[in-house]
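Late entry, written up from scratch paper. The run itself happened at the end of the previous shift, but nothing got recorded in the book at the time, so transcribing now.
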Amino acid sequence: MIEKPTAGRTTAAAEGEVVVLLIGMRVNHFWAVHQWLPVMGAMFRMLAELTRNRERGLLGRVLLTASPRTYYVVQYWESKEKLYAYATAPDTFHHRAWQIINRKERAGKVRGHVGLWHESYVVPEGSYESIYHDMPAFGLAAATGVLPVERRGRSAAQRFAHRAPGAADKTA
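Output as recorded:
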């Protein structure tokens, strides 16, 4: 399904802090398909699990590639607590996948054919801004909703200065 772009300038409707996880894999040896293809499959399986169970806290995601070797997902989460909870929950596919990886590593069967990585960021309110022009909801806006840019300000400085209603009450 092709999403229609929203005309004009919009911004993400995010309120408060934003939790961003970049997670991916790098194919170190293309010929070792039997090593990296299951890792790629596991990535898609975890995303499907999170899509089915919205209460786990994943708000949205974007699949990207950095090169023919490197594939990753930008994920937006409700909170760092929900991200931690998913990562450590024994009933998730993530937990089972890491058990397999750890078992192979202890047995000396990890051979460097595929690399894994992640970076996590907790971005406080006032430390992010976004603008989209003639775009369907994408990235942070797809995860949190879309607003006309005027609601947050026409300039990046105004959007950075935006605070959620009641935000001052929370910090006092």
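Strands lie at 6-12, 18-27, 58-65, 70-77, 114-123, 132-135, 146-148.
(Scratch paper discarded after transcription.)
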